[in-house]
Design goal:
134 residues; mainly beta; SH3 type barrels; 2 domains; 5-stranded antiparallel beta sheet; elongated; YopX protein domain-containing protein; YopX-like_C; YopX_protein
Length: 134
């Protein structure tokens, strides 16, 4: 079973935090983390634009891959996004950092992560040839 985990950028401390996604009654989002000697569960507010879900996969260097990550594959930059029921790599334009536009089709600009996993004979949950850049 795939691990459901999120990350978000804690602007107060200037660092990425990892855990469960939460939303309070005011509509603010946060990540629930364990803190301190007794591992108290606390919710830290994060920048909503930074929230990304763990894909269940790692790159070839064992770095976890999250929605929103910029990755490199076959010498090109891609953004990881969730669409049409799947995590996928969508090519970005190096000059503008804009995502390629697609409509329910697979082409050289869009790679479902599951396709890369099966076609490349990847081991465990690691994607061979994919490197997390940011």
């Amino acid at each position: 079973m795939r691990q459901t985990k999120y990350r978000g950028y804690d602007t107060a401390n200037g660092e990425w935090i990892y855990g469960s996604l939460c939303k309070n009654i005011k509509g603010n989002y946060g990540i629930q983390v364990e803190q301190g000697e007794f591992k108290w569960k606390v919710v830290k507010t994060v920048d909503i634009k930074s929230i990304g879900q763990f894909t269940g996969m790692t790159d070839e260097y064992d770095n976890e891959i999250y929605a929103g990550n910029i990755v490199e594959y076959e010498g090109n930059k891609f953004v990881v996004q969730y669409d049409i029921g799947s995590f996928m790599l969508v090519r970005t334009d190096d000059e503008t950092d804009m995502y390629s536009i697609f409509e329910n089709c697979w082409n050289d600009d869009v790679y479902p992560m599951s396709q890369l996993y099966w076609e490349n004979g990847c081991e465990e949950n690691s994607l061979t040839g994919v490197t997390v850049l940011e």
